[in-house]
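[Structure tokenization] protein backbone as discrete codes

[Encoding] learned vocabulary of local backbone shapes

[Begin record] amino acids and matching fold tokens:

___
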Amino acid sequence: MATFFEPLGTTAEMGKKYRFADAIANAGKVYGLATFGDANGIVYNKKIFKQAGITSEPTTPGQLITDLKAVKAKTAATPYYTNYKDGWPLAWPAGTMGAVSGDVNANVKMASNPTPWAAGSEMNTLDNLLYTMVKDKLTEKDPTTTNWETSKSLLATGKIAMMPLGSWALPQMQLASKTAGTDPADVGFMPMPFQTNGKSNVPIGPDWTQGVSVHSSNKKAAMAWVTWFTDKSGYYKPNGGVPTLKSLPLPDSLTSLKGANILQMVPSPKSTAVDKQSEIAITQPDPYRKLVDSARGASGTTEQQLFDQWNKAWGAAIKSVG
């Protein structure tokens, strides 16, 4: 990193003031600051949930399934839209690691766990939630016909009840609502349906980052810009983001997260290496498409068979990576 960027400070000193100081860092030095952070949870249509008689946010997977069944029974909305075709929105289980356990080191621990899909484990719990929503027919009829861009308008206008996404998607859905002539306030954001010690767990991570080029002829001005943008611009507010500067409050759009455990997840290069060696690709669509296909009876493979295959591949990869 030092070949291309100027150090902004040490991870120790920057970490006291800023979130995500370790995201773009090397050898104890910070080379970039996040424009804002993304909270990982659920974007949903409040109006549809209200029509279904839902008066509080779900705090367990079972409660979410019950709520989605109420949506299906009492409204015309699709409870959960998979976005199977575009694929990337399906990878939310990897993005919400930590939501079940409340552990910022969930990814680090997974890197040394030879059976991360064992019953009761975090990945098992998250993946099973996806599987159950599909198995219980709480999704679109044909997942192969989904469309991401269309889904924004569908959720905004109440034709879809909810989708697990990052908070960055909230302003996009609200804009789609405004364009369609519906109330943007109907679109909200809530934590995943898991709690520890009575509090919801909300994993967060950095969005795009800014740094200073080593080739800049105006390094002082560039550093001043990065500092102003991060500390004073308020850029995070219209983007539904978590502020990088720790002392700033959450935006109004994320009021549902107040009182929750905000988890700045510790990155795990080893987990990335193990995943690559295993060829499971937990941050990519493929394993989740396999879960969806299994749940809808399109593959001939059971959920447990998938979990067993992934445990075997992951365990072997840990031994290989060392």
